[in-house]
Each structure stands twice: as C-alpha cells, then as structure tokens.
Here is the input.
Amino acid sequence: MEEKDRQRFLRLLPSVDKILQHERVVNLLGEYPRWLVVKMTQQVVEEERKVILSCDRNLLSDDCLNLECFSKKISERISACGQMSLKRVINATGIIVHTNLGRSLLNHEILKNMEKIASSFSNLEYNLEQGKRGSRYTHVEDILCELTGAEAALVVNNNAGAVLIALNSIASNLEVIVSRGQLVEIGGSFRIPDVMRESGAKLIEVGTTNKTHLIDYKRAINDQTALLLKVHTSNFQIIGFTSEVKLEELVDLGREYSLPVMEDLGSGCFIELGKFGLTREPTVQEAIQSGVDVVTFSGDKLLGGPQAGIILGKEKIIERIRKNPINRALRIDKLTLAALESTLHLYMEGESVVERIPTLRMLTLPLVEIEKRAKSLYRRLRDKTNNSFHVEIKDDISRAGGGALPLQDLPTKVIAIKPVYISVDNLEERLRRYNPPVISRIDDDQVLLDVRTLQKGDAEIIGKAVKSIFAPPCK
Ligand SMILES: *Cc1c(COP(=O)(O)O)cnc(C)c1O
Here is the structure.
C-alpha cells in the first residue's frame, strides 16, 4: 500500500470518543459497565490501526472504517467477555505434552468417572469394609504397585511436590549427592537445587557437567549423607564425551553404604516406546526393578493422565513420606484421584492403552494417518478464488514435549499458510485471538499448523477461522 493511502486510512480511523457516541455503542453503555465498553473500543481501534500499518496492499476500503462496522465488532467483543478465562484452545503446535496448553488430555471414559465422583458423595476417605475413616491414597496404591512392581505407592499434587516431600522426608538437614550434569531446570522454573534447598536437604554436587563416575559419588559419602539422587535430565541431553552412572550401579553403592537411592524420572513412562519406533525412555518398571528405593514422576506427562506426582518405592520409605505433615499440604484432590485411577485402569487393559490415552495416541500416530489428516485439512483450506493467502503441505517435526524424548524427531506433516497482504505475525495473532484460539507457530515466513496434535472437530474450526481471517474486511 502506498504511504499516502496508509496515511489516509489512518486519518479515517474514527476516534474512541466518536465511536462511543454511535447508537449501538450507546446501547451497550446502558447494558455494560462503562470501563468495559471503553476498553473494548480502544482495543478494536488499536487492532484496526495495526491492520492498516501492516497491510502491504490496498486491501482496505473506506467502508471498513465506518462507525457501523466498529460498533459491530465492539458488540461482539463485549459478548465474548462473558466467556471463561480458562478455555479450550486448539493445539496446532505439534508439541504433544505442551505444559502451557495443559499437558495431557483425558479421554471420555476417564471424564465419565470424574463426573460421577464429582457429582456424588464417594468413599474418598471412608473404608467401606470397616465402616470407618479410610485413606484417600489407598484407591490407587494397589494398582500402581501391580503395574510397576513397586512395594508401595503414594500420590501427591504434582511431581515437583513429590520431589520436595521425598527429599524432606529422607534428607532434611542432611546431605544429598547428585551429579552436576543432572542439576536441571524444568520449564516454569522448577530447579532441582532450589527444590532441594526448600526441602531442607543439603545439595552435594559431584562430577562435572559432562562426566560423573561412581567414584565421584563414593568419595562424597560421609556420615551426613542421607540419599543418593539421580535426576532424569528430561528436557536436554548432553551428547559427545559424556558418562553417567547407571541407576543399577548407584543402587549397589547405596546398598554398600546403607543409603537409600532415589530417581526423579520426570516423565514416567509405563510402556516400551521402542516398540513404536521411538527412542527408548527408561520405564518406571525398569527403575523399580533396578532396586531403587524411591521413584517420582508426573501424572500428566508421558503417562497421559491428570496432573499428579507419583511416588513409588520401598514400603518403609513411602510410609515415612506418607506421614510427613507436608503430605497434607500437597494432597491430591478427589477429581484428580478419580482421573488417575481410571487412567491406570486403561494401562491394566494392555496394548489398547496406546489408542485410548490421547498423549500416547498422538505420540505413536503413524505417518500415513497424519498425511491423511493433512490432505483433508489442506482441501478444506485451499480456496482458488481467494488470492490473499497460499497454503501447502510440508514435512516437519513434532515434539513429545513435557521434557520427554528431547532428541526424538517425530516426522509429521504441517499445513503452511503464507498470507499475501498481512504479515505472518498478524496471521498468527488472529488465529490466536479466534474463538476458540488456534495456537500455531511461525517458521520461514509461514504460519505452520501441525495436524498431529489436532483433535476431532479442530480441522473444521481451523477452516472457519482461516476463512474469516481472509474474507474481505467488514463482510
Ligand atoms: C517435569 C519434571 C518435574 C516437575 O514435574 P511437575 O509434574 O511439573 O511438577 C520434575 N522433575 C523432572 C525431571 C521433570 O521432568
């Protein structure tokens, strides 16, 4: 667009005051608080200004800037305000366990169970056999032990809490030995050294960033040592000249000095991912089998359940953790417990779990299926009569996310959209502001929509979103 046109459009942009005098807006002022109407008006004007500034051809007409058009947008915006703040979004990022987008999805079987527990009284802390007070933790303890081979189990609010309470129960005022290469920070600023300080345990770092040997642990052991800790470096990997002490070796060392050994597994996977052509993640069962005393992991990462921190291990230690007063502060809520128990039941049913747990289904989705979805979405978006955008299918990479399989490339297909008259940033923003928001990513001056993480019905919504964004303005 020529600069003089751009200036003309900017001059045509009505003032907030002028819009507030329009009949429809005056009506809105009668219905809604003034601050809200003013705020939405300012927002709409600001967005139109951005469109004028970013449009690179004369796509706008004078009509677009009339008061009628503005007042309509403001009215729509205000009715949308009745919406919830926490709402569904469409994950087109291709990151399966996306912490910012709520991690794992629960399937309808799990939701049915949650609904029943939420809308009725339950035996949450009531022992039906004895007719007296029971414990909420018993509901998932047996099934967790059955699935993993652990002696005992405890669940808390999340894995950060699980690590905190375990360290506090085992090593308060004492020393915990950790390899320097495992002092990780997980997204959202969960740092192992910080959690350790809050737990009252003293961190003893051994080894170097890339190499730690058994002898390094051994040399650090003294009469203040309470625990040997291994942390799964879930969201990064040091490659090249590296060595880490195997869990088994650490367990042997622990036995030699009568010290407990703990592993923070992070993602906590129950199934052998190697079977699906993915990088092997150490499974929870393997960790237990190695003889480790305590293992902690998340409920909503690769396990694919609700947010929870799962602690498994030897009965004596789990009992100590259970009795820690912090447990009351970290306690798992009943809906989470209902969701977790249903999730674990799906694992009891064997191989079909991969189909029934959305996180596992997305992770193991065959490329042919992804291709089919990509083609179908492509056909939906392609519009030969509209020259304001180009769309194509491209090869790309999805990620497991949630700090799991950091080096695993998951080949996928993405829909790449290149807008002609607006910027890619503007397109990304408009998709994000759509209702429901569509979360995409930008690469190589295109907006990419990864079909791997799309759910049923999402393609139709994306079709509508794209159509409305590229429709001639004000229609
Ligand atoms: C994700 C992760 C945590 C934190 O788990 P939350 O469930 O987010 O509390 C702790 N340790 C490791 C190694 C992790 O990957």
